Amino acid sequence: MKKLGFLVALLSLTFSAVYAGDGNKKSDKAAEKGIQFTEASWAAILKKAKKENKIIFFDAYTTWCGPCKLLQKNVFTRADVAKVFNANFINVKFDMESGEGPALAEKYPIEGYPTLFFIDGNGKMVKSLLGYQTPEKLIKAAKSIQKAPRTI
């Protein structure tokens, strides 16, 4: 019985490390090369988007969401994804259960997590994606938005 308890504890720790990130320097360096998220108030983000004539890429996540963590770890850190998003969008992420998140959840329709929004400088939603997205699908969505005509 002690072996079973030890095995359960070991599996729990392993599972936690996979989803929480291991904090090593290799992971930190990968994150530095990924999508660069702007930290500011929603009002400041909208103002910046309008001024720069850019669309906002908004990652609506929660801390407990497994697919959200996988996006952060496996998609947002990729160089090909970062190249498209850093050059063409103002990238932001909000925990939808703290800070400005709950107010934003009332403004923009959330059916599940993660929800990825593309929003113009006036606060109008251009497109949304629900759930985990592969790097290829996320890049394709971003490029389709870049090609769409818009007035900000």
UniProtKB/TrEMBL annotation:
Coiled coil: none annotated. Pfam families: Thioredoxin_2 (PF13098). The keyword Metal-binding does not apply. Keywords: Signal. Residues 6-147 form the Thioredoxin domain. SUPFAM superfamilies: Thioredoxin-like. Residues 1-20 form the signal peptide. This is Thioredoxin fold domain-containing protein.
